Amino acid sequence: MLRTRVLNSGYGKLRVLFNVDFCAEPQKITVVVGPNGAGKTTLLNSITGLATIHSGKVLYGDTDITGLPPHKVARLGISYVPQMGNVFSNLTVEENLRVAGYLLPESKLLDRVELVYSLFPVLKDFKHRRAGTLSGGERRMLAIGMALVKEPTTMLLDEVTTDLAPIYVKKVLEKVVELRDSLKLTVVLVEQYALRALQIADKAYLLVSGTVRYEGDPQELLRHPELSKLYLGIS
Question: Helix (H, G, I), strand (E, B), or coil: what is residue 113?
């Protein structure tokens, strides 16, 4: 279980999150939605050691990971797919996957790469193409694949459908469901496409101005007229 307790965090002296209690249950999809600037990405950065923790705790199971550097967080089984800069454009698809798993023994690495290809067949078709030549949706799939190579138990996905055509939004979110159902991963999904994301979620959080305004059933949030219209643009 991944959780925060009374988390106050930001960047340097700037505070972005205020007393945030958050919990992602094992093998579930937890979606974090909210308007721009609400602190959604800062929550992920706080978990992965990329933000400044002013006070509070970040816990992974029984382990206190508050303020751990990113490479130590990753070794615990938490993989982070940031919104930007998540692939090496000058490397081929397969080179990207191999770089992501450079710490694995060769036999294990080959198994993980094949797992990625089975989940994203288009990547196998394009394995010799440079990542910079892929479409936006294909690059997002590659970024998720690179995270999968590392054998995570938990995946943090930041705005993986941003700027994608609707057909790719649907495909990527279907793969997120597959991560939960087939690979039994815990998924934390930060999303701007609130409606689609909430439809696949097991649990939802609404962040507004760095504070939690809602926690609970995603369908209940969708049915909440004030919150869904005011903060998510859903009527």
Answer: helix
pLDDT tens-place string over residues 83-121: 887 899 999 999 999 999 988 999 999 999 999 999 999
Amino acid at 226: E
**Helices vs strands, H then E, count in the chain:** 10, 10
Element (H, E) at 52: strand 52-60
In three-state secondary structure terms, 78 is strand
- Cβ atoms within 10 Å, residue 233: 11
Dist. CA 211–CA 21, nearest whole Å: 9
Full strand arrangement of the beta sheet holding 14-24: 14-24, 2-11, 52-60, 63-64
**Number of residues in the chain:** 235
Q: Containing H/E element for 10?
A: strand 2-11
pTM of the model: 0.92
Domain map of the chain by residue range? 1-77+188-235
DSSP state of 131: G
CATH node for 1-77+188-235: 3.40.50.300
